[in-house]
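All the exercises in this workshop are built on plain-text protein records. Sequence and backbone structure share a record, each on its own labelled line. The question running through the whole workshop is how a given chain folds. The record below serves as our worked example for the rest of this section.
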Amino acid sequence: MRMLLIVKLPHGPFNTAVKDGTVGQKMKRILDETKPEAVYFTEQNGRRGAVMVVNLEDPSRIPFYAEP
């Protein structure tokens, strides 16, 4: 089952990761774990965010995607 996942990136932690140079590693780890079909980085209501299309083979995996 395909699922549209809306991601909100908090400004403080994201800016800190950009400044210390770890944002690329963190984003790669997240994308490697979720294996999205597509990712669109965007602004949502004045905040950084992303829209991801993920294939959810087992509904019990929803917390993996939805929990922080």
User: Anything to note?
Assistant: The radius of gyration is 13 Å. Residues 2-66 form one domain. The CA atoms of residues 13 and 23 lie 10 Å apart. The longest strand covers residues 47-55.
